[in-house]
């Protein structure tokens, strides 16, 4: 955010609040060079994010749909909806922080599962069963064993699966329960 007075590139946020419409975030910033203050309105919501499916189709990221999928995965589990809303928010922020308006559906699914796993293990397995399209019990068991071997909080920062993707895999995370 460039300073309107001296054009310096760095500023710090001194105050931040939602505007009345809720569509923009109003920020008071202070230039790190000349120390003068200025206001910015950042319209985070107006930039659409796209999920790129395996066949190349792009679909606009839909937080309500994702939340719907998470609610289905956590049905009858003791997970507060507010927790899921926070998760969706976190995901959206992570997507917006990537610097690209597109994300492969597979990556999105992994982002969600990584976090869901820390919230509820049953929900994680349910979500994974749809997202990873388990083909049989052995496949499902492998995922559960992996979960047991690395309980939430103990896993490495970048867990990666060894097996290659199957056709059609990773296409469903946004369609759960729909
Ligand atoms: Zn300045």
Describe this structure in words.
By secondary structure, the chain is of the alpha+beta class. It has two domains: about 35 residues, no CATH class; about 100 residues. About 35% of the residues lie in helices and about 15% in strands. It is built from five helices and six strands; from the N terminus they run E-E-E-E-E-H-H-E-H-H-H. The protein has a three-stranded antiparallel beta sheet, with no helix packed on it. A three-stranded mixed beta sheet has the order 5-4-6. Strand 2 and strand 3 form a beta hairpin. Helix 1 crosses helix 2. The chain starts with 10 loop residues before the first strand and ends in a 29-residue tail after the last helix. The mean pLDDT is about 75. The structure holds zinc ion (ZN).
Strand-helix topology:
Blueprint (H helix, E strand, L loop, with lengths): L10 E8 L6 E7 L5 E6 L7 E3 L5 E3 L2 H11 L7 H16 L5 E3 H15 L1 H11 L5 H13 L29
Parallel strand pairs: 4-6
Antiparallel strand pairs: 1-2, 2-3, 4-5
- Straight-line N-to-C gap: 40 Å
- List the uncertain runs: none
3D shape? elongated
In the residues, how many domains can be counted? 2
Q: How would you characterize the largest beta sheet?
A: 3 strands, antiparallel
SS-based class: alpha+beta
Instruction: List ligands, each type once.
Output: zinc ion
Radius of gyration: 20 Å
Q: Please bin the fraction of helical residues.
A: 25-40%
Estimate what percentage of residues fall within beta strands. Answer: 15-25%
Number of helices: 5
Can you write the helix and strand succession as a string?
Answer: EEEEEHHEHHH
Mean pLDDT figure: 77
Strand order of the largest sheet: 1-2-3
Please give the number of β-strands: 6
């Amino acid at each position: 955010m460039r300073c309107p007075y001296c054009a310096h590139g760095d500023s710090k946020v001194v105050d931040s609040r939602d505007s009345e419409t809720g569509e923009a975030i109003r920020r008071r910033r202070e230039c790190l060079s000349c120390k003068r203050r200025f206001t910015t309105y950042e319209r985070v919501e107006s930039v659409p994010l796209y999920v790129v499916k395996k066949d190349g189709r792009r679909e606009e990221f839909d937080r309500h749909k994702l939340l719907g999928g998470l609610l289905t995965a956590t049905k009858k589990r003791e997970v507060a909806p507010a927790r899921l809303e926070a998760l969706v928010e976190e995901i959206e922020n992570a997507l917006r922080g990537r610097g690209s308006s597109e994300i492969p559906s597979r990556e999105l699914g992994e982002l969600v599962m990584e976090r869901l796993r820390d919230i509820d293990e049953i929900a994680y397995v349910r979500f994974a069963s749809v997202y990873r399209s388990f083909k049989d019990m052995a496949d499902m068991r492998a995922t559960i064993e992996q979960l047991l071997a690395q309980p939430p909080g103990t896993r490495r920062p970048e867990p990666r699966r060894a097996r290659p993707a199957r056709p059609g895999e990773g296409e469903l995370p946004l369609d759960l329960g729909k």
